[in-house]
Amino acid sequence: TVVRREDYAPPAYWIDTVELTFDLDPAKTRVLNRMALRRNPAVPAQPLRLDGEELNLARVLVNGAGCSFKMDGGQLVLDNLPSLEEHGDAPFTLEIFTTCAPEKNSQLMGLYVSQGTFFTQCEAEGFRRITYFLDRPDVMASYTVTLRADKQRYPVLLSNGNLVESGELADGRHFAKWVDPHRKPCYLFALVAGQLVAREQRIVSRGGQEHLLQVYVRPGDMDKTEHAMNSLMASVAWDEARFGLPLDLERFMIVATSDFNMGAMENKGLNIFNTKYVLANSATATDTDFANIESVVGHEYFHNWTGNRVTCRDWFQLSLKEGLTVFRDQEFSMDLCAEASARAVKRIEDVRVLRTAQFPEDAGPMAHPVRPDSYVEINNFYTVTVYEKGAEVVRMMQTLVGREGFARGMKLYFERHDGQAVTCDHFAQALADANPDSALARLLEPFKRWYSQAGTPRVRAEGHYDAAARRYTLSLTQRCAPTPGQALKQPFVIPVALGLLDAEGRELPLAPEQRLFVLTEVSQSLVFDGVDSEPVPSLLRGFSAPVVLECDYSDEQLLILLANDSDPFNRWEAGQRLALRRALAAIAAPGAVDAPLDAAFIEAMRAVLRHERLDAAFKELALTLPSETYIAEQLEVVDPQRVHAVREAMREQLATALQADWVWAYEAHKDNGAYRPDPLSAGRRALAGLALAMLCLQARRSGDAVWPGKAYQRFKDAGNMTDRFNALSALVVADHPLAREALTRFHAMFRDEALVLDKWFALQAGAPDRGGNVLPAVKQLMAHRDFNPRNPNRARSVIFSYCNANPGAFHRADAAGYVFWSERVIEIDRFNPQVAARLARALDRWRKLAEPYRGAAREAIARVAAQTELSNDVREVVTRALSDD
Ligand code: ARG
Ligand code: ZN
């Protein structure tokens, strides 16, 4: 059934307090739920309907006495409550006694067991799998939780808030009682029970309060917790410094689990994390892992204000907390960068994610607005649109009100809404009201189309130079293609940050108001007077809006931007445009792919690589070609094999033409001394890694043995995982005979490190295809004794790395990749619908495919859709994929 945003109605009852008592047992956990409720007088009197799922109901008491009830679907319906009688709006108590089976919970929603430890995941609608409840975010209650369990097996008992009591019970059991001082919606409830150890840190916040920070992990993982703790301390300090938002709890806990559907969860005071985003040391984690941990720890911590103190009224408002919190974690990571260049690198990386993942979503069958209008399964809407595009919407608001204005807006938002469950409108209104003279306040209603209209707008820019009048005119035109259910779009409010360069690459002086143009109409022109020669426009600086910018730059103009633009984002973007143009030309050209790159492009890349002042991280980004997914998005009809062949040919050409430069780059960047995960040294490792990969690729062509030998040596001697893994992947990507040996060694070295084995699996499933060898390799990996499809990380490392991240290997003319995909979707759906639905998204863009891929992909999707027993999650994805809307 479809849930619609317009159908929102306030709850008929409020729940003021909840007392939960758990007798934890993997096979049968008993849950006593004692609630104080009262009718919501604003809503007509009606029965109380509580959500529940896979629960065994034992007893229901109202005000201490038995009462009648009935079941309707999953809901428990109470229709003769005292409060339904005349004048019956007095509070009442409701006691519900249920049991559930955590060890059988393979969906990892609600209460489940992972490696002998109990965990919960309640967002979005998992609390109903723990007890009957009003499982919706606008019902906020005060929680008291008592956990009882065998002391030996579950020595650590955690829940939200503060520990107020603990002690022994009979039969080797013990208990702990937790009180959360903050009201919260049930999706923020959490408990953990098991054998865990904690890294602890006491901190004193600005106001002088003391807090205890804890990072809980399995006993063998203590040596991988330092970075997460450092990230947490930095997060606390940052939110206070930048937004004046303090930690509001005596104790803040992070707990890591290796079985988790998503990245992490912001449960009040008790964040639960996928181990992937907690555990790191230099021997087992790469620079990317370190950076991800910093941003996810930040993200969950920042939710404490943006999500928990102010929460969502309903799940359509998800971006209220997610878009804002992604924006905050992006800003956090940028603010931690000591150098401006590192900030720019972070911005480029974030935009790359948006454009390779969100733009395709916006153009495909699952396209939805940042604030969706309807859903079948809310779990399907934890998307790059809600998260990453939502963050871009917040970023545009900051651009329109300025950084200080944004801080003012945030302050007003909390003054108005602390403790409430609100909508995206409330947030935008607070920002506008705090900045009454801003462009945002003036344009608030049209600006909010970013929340309601799906699809990526395209902005077309055309420059015209009038030499006689010394005048440059820039016309901007916007349009947005239809998306499911939205045929026509109204114009978006698009902030366009810009500059002009002269032919020598010098920046023309512009007034501040000229440097930010806000496009509000379908078509508008900007006029610049006193311009002495035809300028090169640098548009959408810093990627100031989530749009596709179309501009008919000449190669010369792009080369000027690449060499000179003061905006690092556009400098990178110019190089990407040059590369993309060549890729598209080679794809369109008839016949075999032959040397797609010209001397001018190669020289420009050499100049970037050899540049004296650009830093290594930027060079690595600039010398990385646009991904196959990104290239494919630019095409009307996609032949994935052709795209793959062209991109590979470009890489090989760059490898060969710049061979001496890659040697220099490798030698100049390979030694970084003691490992530190800071952006500057990570950038050096990244560039050395790219250089080594290029050298191995070139060696593959020339048959030279020196560089593969060096890579193998590097693989063995590396002092950290980044260098080791880069060397391994250079061998694997070049398909060198030494790769086998290296992979075997790597597995032996890290056989007990689950997260490292994930990398080992992912590298092989994501390897470039050579004559169709990857699919058989993937099937073999699935037969490996370390493979387990029920562990989401492991399933992702093999199946997703192949289906969602390796287009050149997945799209096979014999359709075997699609058959494999449909089998896995159906299989995984039986035990974990959320993971299956993510996998189901791999064929979102099937309509774009050339034959024979298109027909075969449609057939594979239809095969999944024909299953009678499908979860709502997968059903919604495949139905939308096949719909003709
Ligand atoms: N709120 C979490 C985060 O973004 C994600 C939870 C997603 N859960 C889900 N069932 N889809 O940090
Ligand atoms: Zn979040």
TrEMBL record:
Enzyme Commission (EC) number: 3.4.11.2
Domain Peptidase M1 alanyl aminopeptidase C-terminal: 555-882
Pfam families: DUF3458 (PF11940), DUF3458_C (PF17432), Peptidase_M1 (PF01433), Peptidase_M1_N (PF17900)
Domain of life according to the entry: Bacteria
Residues in Aminopeptidase N-like N-terminal domain copies: 71-188
Occurrences of domain Peptidase M1 membrane alanine aminopeptidase (ranges): 228-436
Residue ranges constituting the Peptidase M1 alanyl aminopeptidase Ig-like fold domain according to the UniProt record: 455-551
Gene Ontology MF term list: alanyl aminopeptidase activity; metallopeptidase activity; zinc ion binding
EC class of the enzyme, as a word: hydrolase
GO biological process: proteolysis
Reaction it catalyzes: Release of an N-terminal amino acid, Xaa-|-Yaa- from a peptide, amide or arylamide. Xaa is preferably Ala, but may be most amino acids including Pro (slow action). When a terminal hydrophobic residue is followed by a prolyl residue, the two may be released as an intact Xaa-Pro dipeptide
Keywords, comma-separated and alphabetical: Aminopeptidase, Hydrolase, Metal-binding, Metalloprotease, Protease, Zinc
InterPro entries noted in UniProt: Aminopeptidase_N-like_N (IPR045357), Aminopeptidase_N-like_N_sf (IPR042097), PepN_Ig-like_sf (IPR038438), Peptidase_M1 (IPR001930), Peptidase_M1_dom (IPR014782), Peptidase_M1_pepN (IPR012779), Peptidase_M1_pepN_C (IPR024601), Peptidase_M1_pepN_C_sf (IPR037144)
Cofactor(s) essential for the protein: Zn(2+)
Family: Belongs to the peptidase M1 family.
Protein's UniProt name: Aminopeptidase N
Origin species: Hydrogenophaga borbori
Lineage of origin: Bacteria, Pseudomonadati, Pseudomonadota, Betaproteobacteria, Burkholderiales
